[in-house]
Specification:
Helices cover 64% and strands 1% of the residues. The chain is built from 18 helices and 2 strands. The chain has 3 domains: 53 residues, no CATH class; 134 residues, no CATH class; 91 residues.
Length: 392
């Protein structure tokens, strides 16, 4: 109860009257319901209510702002599991039987079969997940949103944020999915405010030559949030200097080899990397670095989205590439990339994942074209000037 102007006596009277009434219980998740009543002329401006009225989003923001990194991670994870996933499960599992892909995603959400294992393995490797993606109307991103929230539930925030930034560009802004994408973006912003501040403290220690203390700082971050690509990259950087001293630059490739898998597991499109000892490594490192040059100018949005998909494919982020190619195809159905339709690149990305069943949904046989794309991409890499500058 909140009143404007302040009136504690009225609040007490109303609360006493409400006590005998049983509060309704929501079926799936809690939600806000605000009832407003105006008496006579109402409240004189400015309208300051007592006690202060806080929506669920405002309360979430206040809670997160006062929490440690570990607490923020757990709060957001529980929000995904308890508040959002049950709603998405209800909407997806109860669709008409002619949409088996959407239903399959709903069952996955309802049974929480994604917990304690890689969400990627049970979504992007499953033909039904991709069928569900294709069954939805333009702008309705409830299927990829479900995947993103599975990553959140498994503490894979970096990966979730990578998908989030891409997907929102294609979402119907009035859809349920967009509502939750915005909520998730707001919550993750508060998580990364704390996370980034802690990483920067580690960088300050490194810059002061305190490499052991910097490493300790990064390990503290990773103890709370193991899937931080930035913390893992900075850990590699400080470890290089601690282990090799003045020879750090000469030996960085060896140290990078130890840390690279964890960095790119957290975020396969992380825009940094270590040394390169051959043309292929140099080409892939350059592709990573290109990511941070994207989306700086609004006039180049379309061009950057196509480049983003191409980079993802080169970096073996096949699921990310497939999502991006599919939604680009919906928006730009006549566009071609390197002489092939976006549908071909979408199916090729799925084929690289080991998923070939969706090819049956289309009349044309793309087998020969798809099988030839490996050589097309290999030739493109070997003709790249950076690749040629290295001797194999």
């Amino acid at each position: 109860m909140s009143v404007c102007p302040e009136n504690n006596s009225l609040i007490e009277q109303v609360n006493n009257a409400l006590q005998p009434i049983n509060s309704p219980v929501a079926n799936f998740a809690s939600f806000d319901l605000q009832l407003s009543f105006k008496f006579n002329e109402g409240c004189n401006s400015p309208e300051i209510f007592s006690p202060e009225i806080n929506s669920a989003a405002e309360k979430m923001k206040k809670d997160l702002s006062s929490q440690t990194l570990l607490q923020r991670k757990e709060t957001i994870r529980n929000w995904a599991l308890q508040e959002v996933i049950p709603i998405l499960a209800h909407f997806t599992k109860n669709v008409d039987a002619q949409f088996p892909g959407v239903q399959a995603t709903g069952k996955m959400l309802e049974q929480k079969s994604f917990l304690n294992q890689q969400a990627a393995a049970i979504t992007e490797k499953d033909p039904l997940y991709w069928r569900g993606l294709m069954e939805m109307n333009k702008g309705n991103l409830i299927i990829p949103l479900s995947k993103v929230l599975m990553h959140v539930a498994n503490d894979e925030f970096d990966l979730a944020r990578r998908y989030l930034g891409m997907l929102f560009r294609f979402a119907d802004k009035e859809s349920l999915a967009s509502h939750y994408l915005l909520d998730l973006n707001r919550n993750l912003d508060l998580f990364y405010q704390s996370h980034d501040s802690l990483v920067r403290e580690g960088i300050r220690l490194h810059d002061d030559g305190k490499y052991a203390e910097a490493i300790k700082q990064y390990n503290t971050i990773l103890a709370a949030y193991p899937n931080s690509a930035w913390a893992r990259y900075e850990l590699y950087f400080s470890s290089t200097y601690l282990e090799k001293g003045n020879k750090a630059k000469d030996q960085s490739a060896q140290v990078w080899a130890k840390h690279q898998p964890a960095v790119y597991a957290a975020d396969p499109l992380y825009p940094m990397g270590g040394g390169a000892s051959n043309g292929r490594e140099a080409f892939l490192l350059f592709r990573h670095l290109q990511v941070k040059e994207l989306f700086r100018e609004s006039s180049k949005l379309k061009e950057d989205l196509f480049t983003y998909a191409d980079i993802a494919l080169d970096l073996s982020a096949y699921s990310f590439a497939a999502h991006l190619y599919w939604y680009l195809m919906i928006v730009f159905p006549e566009e071609k990339l390197k002489g092939q339709s976006l549908l071909v690149w979408y199916l090729y990305s799925l084929q690289k994942l080991g998923v070939t069943e969706p090819q049956k949904f289309f009349k044309e046989d793309y087998t020969a074209v798809l099988n030839g794309l490996d050589k097309t991409r290999e030739d493109a890499m070997k003709n790249d000037p950076l690749y040629k500058s290295f001797k194999e």
